[in-house]
Amino acid sequence: MQFIDLAAQQRRIRAGLERRIHQVLDHGQYILGPEIRELEAKLACYAGVKHCLTCASGTDALLMPLMALGVGPGDAVFVPTFTFVATAEVVALCGACPVFVDIEKDTFNISSESLSRAYEVLASGASGLRPRGIIPVDLFGQPADYSAINDFAAKHDLFVLEDAAQGFGAEYQGRKSCSLASIGATSFFPAKPLGCYGDGGAIFLDDDQVLEKLLSIRVHGQGEDKYDNVRLGINGRMDTLQAAVVLEKLEIFDEEIALRNRAAERYSEMLENLVEVPRCREGRRSVWAQYSVLSDKRSLLQDALKKEGIPTAVYYSKPLHKQKAYLKYVRESGFGESLPVSEAVAREVFSLPMHPYLEIKDQEKIASVIRGVIELNR
Ligand SMILES: *Cc1c(COP(=O)(O)O)cnc(C)c1O
């Protein structure tokens, strides 16, 4: 059994993928070729925003907007502590201070209550840092609570950058992820819900002026051309070949999201009374990048599943405020020494196989192994 079955997906679309890849081999525009423009137009339309700019990774999709907004030394940016490291890393790479915030146990997303406590501590001025923005994460595929977050941000003059690396295609109150804040970022890392065959990412926004800056930052801070450098930039471009792969996968993406949701519903019915199952809040649709459950018998369950050839994974065993590289930011900000919900979740969380081609009989087998362990250890 596969944790994420990319081979099953490839069997479905192999012919189309080959056609798309051969087109790139024929025209030879490997950098910023026509597939890049085609993909950017389709993704902007899909997300319901004015502009989409593809880039080299999900990490660059977070880093480049921070550079465009001028985030730097003396600035504080609020991030959930329970996320992949890239969310905080980009803040630190800009020279600013990531401020770690706790999460809600049932959605795994940033807690508004913890956010407002973190803001109060920063606004008191003790750290000397200036609160600049928030990076909520659509963790495991479910959007965070953007109406609360955007209201809070507007009140305190903060930017909001949506980290939808795991949530492309998700919905919140009828709107698509990557359109839920003033700037959205996603990743096409192969294991994400919409992945390519290497690294890739995209940025989404309506603002024309920020777009101009991002276009320049993507090519080394170019002005008139790439040998005229008007600001600091990076090589942040996505390969044309990767765009060709995403274009082909986009054709079946909505159907795959529906299949993921069906698989998640089946899991929740089968596992409801055995472990804590994830909840999708009213008005939101997850894309189930991961199906993650909580149990105080995690290691027993993982061992029993492994014996049956069923892979599982722990996202994330150590929240960022406990990671060696980030301890200094906890001290600098004066907030987030102890974030109890994230710490408890990190001890109990684990993820089960999840992909659109997961079969009912495999889910039944997973549920029966879990039931066996729980009943034996009641
Ligand atoms: C994967 C991921 C990223 C980074 O994306 P890459 O394409 O791997 O650089 C950022 N944030 C979150 C929450 C992620 O899961």
Structure report:
The mean pLDDT is 97. It is built from 13 helices and twelve strands. The chain has a seven-stranded mixed β-sheet, with helices on both faces. Strands 7-6-10 form a three-stranded antiparallel β-sheet, with no helix packed on it. It has a two-stranded antiparallel sheet with strand order 11-12. The protein is of the alpha/beta class. 43% of the residues lie in helices and 13% in strands. The protein is globular. Residues 57-59, 83-84, 86-87, 137, 163, 165-166, 187, 189, 199, 201 line the site of pyridoxal-5'-phosphate (PLP).
What labels describe this entry?
378 residues; alpha/beta; seven-stranded mixed sheet; three-stranded antiparallel sheet; 13 helices; 43% helix; binds pyridoxal-5'-phosphate
Shape: globular
Structural class, by secondary structure, is alpha/beta
Largest sheet: 7 strands, mixed
Query: How many distinct beta strands?
Result: 12
Tell me the layout of helices and strands.
Layout: H1 6-27, H2 34-47, E1 51-55, H3 58-68, E2 75-80, H4 86-93, E3 97-101, H5 112-123, E4 130-134, H6 146-155, E5 159-163, E6 171-172, E7 175-176, E8 183-187, E9 201-205, H7 208-218, H8 240-250, H9 253-271, E10 284-285, E11 291-294, H10 298-307, H11 327-333, H12 340-348, E12 349-352, H13 360-376
Parallel strand pairs: 2-3, 2-4, 4-5, 5-8
Antiparallel strand pairs: 1-9, 6-7, 6-10, 8-9, 11-12
The structure holds pyridoxal-5'-phosphate.
Pyridoxal-5'-phosphate (PLP) binds next to helix 3 and helix 4.
